[in-house]
Write a structure and sequence with these properties.
- The complex is a heterodimer of chains A (77) and B (221).
- With 77 residues, chain A is of the alpha+beta class.
- Chain A has helices spanning 16-27, 52-63, and strands at residues 2-9, 40-45, 69-75.
- Chain A has two helices and three strands.
- Chain B has 221 residues and is α/β, with parallel strands linked by helices.
- Chain B contains six helices and eleven strands.
- In chain B, the strands form two sheets. Chain B has a nine-stranded mixed β-sheet with strand order 2-1-3-4-11-10-9-6-7, with helices on both faces.
- The chains are: A alpha+beta (77), B alpha/beta (221).
Chain lengths: 77, 221
């Protein structure tokens, strides 16, 4: 089963990479961009038996650093 | 004194650190591969080197922090064994939860590799007793992810408890409150981005780093 984990920086955390992307987009002539935040998408292919709680534990123990990052789990079919 | 340098795949300052430790202790440290589960008996000092463990995959230090040997390092730290993490070693210690906060991409996005001025904030720790509080020293940095961040409460606590060991005396990487190195609550774990092992003798441009190792040896001997 495909499961997606989205890891994003917490709100107050400065995101220099997002800032650089923002500047680059504006440099290309795109306007109306208020903010850019860069995150990660991690795709897992899991056995049917793997519980949501296990995926949550994977996020807390390794996939996200909860000091600075939030995560969201999206279970696919 | 028996000491150990932990070696991860991608560590590249492990030998420098080993030479620095041998210089002051007179004894070759054990080089402990990350797949090991035990440290040498009676180990009195553990050092985590700089480098790019696991190619900085996921986050700097994230994979190394989950290596088998890190359980033994955490146990030893809990027993009061001094642990020094330099650069990637500092990143590993935060990822392992042995030090608070996180080290993020440098605010300027550039890899910073140069000598920087540091202010010694705490000269009472086992790591910093050979320095004077408020003293300015110069130690090289070489990192991409040295931007120290933690929530305001954690930063206040670190400062209030004298656990900021070193601060940058110039703009380097955007670290919160210019923090370059911090100590854990018990006082036996230090993480710092600058490389003291690169300033052990005059031929390297100075000995400001050597004092850290000498003071540490004196404190734990």
């Amino acid at each position: 089963m495909k499961t997606r984990v989205y890891v994003t920086l917490k709100g107050g955390v400065l995101d220099p990479q997002g800032k650089a992307i923002h500047h680059a987009l504006e440099g290309l002539g795109f306007s109306g961009i208020n903010d850019v935040r860069a995150g990660k998408l991690i795709e897992l292919d899991l056995d049917e038996g793997v519980a949501e709680a296990d995926v949550d534990a994977m996020c807390r123990k390794l996939l996200a650093n909860t000091v600075i990052e939030n995560y969201r789990i999206e279970r696919g079919s | 004194m028996r000491s150990a340098v932990i070696v991860f795949p991608g560590s590249n300052c492990d030998r420098d650190l080993a030479v620095a430790i041998r210089e002051v202790t007179g004894r070759e440290p054990a080089m402990v591969w990350h797949r090991e589960t035990e440290l040498p008996d009676g180990v009195g000092l553990i050092a985590l080197p700089g480098g790019f463990s696991y190619g900085d995959y996921l986050r700097s230090g994230a994979m190394a922090a989950r290596s088998p040997i890190m359980r033994a390092v955490a146990d030893a730290a809990g027993r009061g064994v001094p642990v020094l993490g330099v650069c990637n070693g500092f990143q590993v210690l935060t990822e392992a939860g042995l030090l608070p906060g996180a080290l993020m991409r440098n605010a300027g996005l550039a890899f910073v590799c140069r000598d920087v001025a540091l202010t010694v904030e705490n000269s009472q720790s086992i790591f910093t007793n050979r320095y004077d509080a408020g003293e300015t020293i110069r130690i090289p940095v070489a990192h991409h992810d040295g931007n120290y961040q933690a929530d305001a409460e954690t930063l206040d606590r670190l400062e209030g408890e004298g656990r900021v060991a070193f601060r940058y005396a110039e703009d380097v990487n955007g670290s919160a409150r210019s923090i370059a190195g911090i100590i854990n609550e018990a006082g036996n774990v230090l993480g710092m981005m600058p490389h003291p092992e690169r300033l052990m003798e005059a031929a390297q441009g100075g000995t400001d780093g050597r004092r850290l190792f000498e003071g540490l040896l004196e404190a734990v001997a």
